[in-house]
Design brief:
The chain has about 260 residues and is an alpha+beta fold. About 25% of the residues lie in helices and about 35% in strands. The protein contains six helices and 15 strands. It is globular and about 60 Å long.
């Protein structure tokens, strides 16, 4: 399995080590192993690592179809997983709609300020004024006790069945452009039509993430299918690189969430 490392970035090697630990545990104990919520990049890595083992499999579930963040069940090939194995709880946020407005950032900021890791939460869903989120069932009682405000607004959490979850909408519209290199600051500047200097400040100010990890180096080399988010500007996805122009610029597609 040593060859797996060469397919991923150096900063991802620690997660590969963790994935290998999980898989060895499943092999040795011959019982399933459930992870916290993983982002899409972590799932790709885990799936690649599991692929090297003949008698170990992995399945992902986030509580709703197309969830971005999902728990992984790593299991021996004799085992038949069910949705219940993933231990996911859905909470609906009840709040005074007439007097306040919730945002993804407010909700996530509040739960993080309570000392909770992002890994214990799945997707935050919204439609009009409705807000819901998924959490590991092992933590649901703790969350129910701790989370009674978002910002200064009093809220109540109501547990719902998973089939009452709002739909996930992650549709990308791609726009073609050209770029001289895939440096992170240049990609951010191109994607959001801002100056290179402004993009560089965002990166160095720890306000830019690539594949859900903060990157502070403007020289960081982006790759196809990377998800890049800049605080205050939203999220984009690098599409395919479609060759070069006569002036040796790369032809790329940048995806924007609808």
């Amino acid at each position: 399995m040593e060859g797996i490392y060469q397919h991923f970035r150096a900063e991802e090697h620690s997660f590969i080590d963790l994935a290998l630990e999980w898989i060895v545990q499943v092999e040795d104990q011959y019982t399933p192993r459930l992870t916290d919520f993983l982002d899409p990049r972590q799932r790709l890595i885990l799936e690649s690592v599991v692929g090297g083992y003949e008698h170990v499999k992995v399945k992902f579930w986030g509580g709703v179809a197309h969830a971005e963040r999902r728990r992984a069940l790593i299991y021996p090939d004799y085992y038949e997983p069910t949705d219940a194995d993933f231990q996911i709880t859905l909470y609906d946020i009840r709040y005074p709609v007439k007097f306040t407005e919730l945002t993804h950032q407010k909700i996530l900021g509040t739960v993080m300020s309570l000392g909770m890791k992002r890994d214990i939460f799945g997707d935050i869903l919204t439609e009009n004024e409705l807000w819901q989120f998924f959490v590991m069932s092992e933590m649901k009682d703790y969350i129910g006790l701790q989370l009674d405000k978002i910002g200064k607004v009093n809220i109540m959490l109501e547990e719902l069945n998973l089939d009452q979850a709002l739909p996930v909408r992650l549709d990308w519209d791609y726009i073609g452009t050209t770029i001289t290199s895939l440096r992170l600051d240049l990609v951010v500047a191109t994607a959001h039509n801002i100056s290179r200097q402004k993009a560089k400040q965002l990166v160095q100010g720890k306000l830019v993430k690539v594949n859900w990890k903060t990157v502070e180096n403007p020289d960081f080399e982006c790759e196809e299918l990377d998800i890049i988010s800049a605080r205050g500007y939203g999220r984009v996805k690098l599409g395919e690189i479609n060759g070069h122009t006569k002036k040796d610029k790369m032809r790329i597609e940048i995806g924007y969430l609808r």
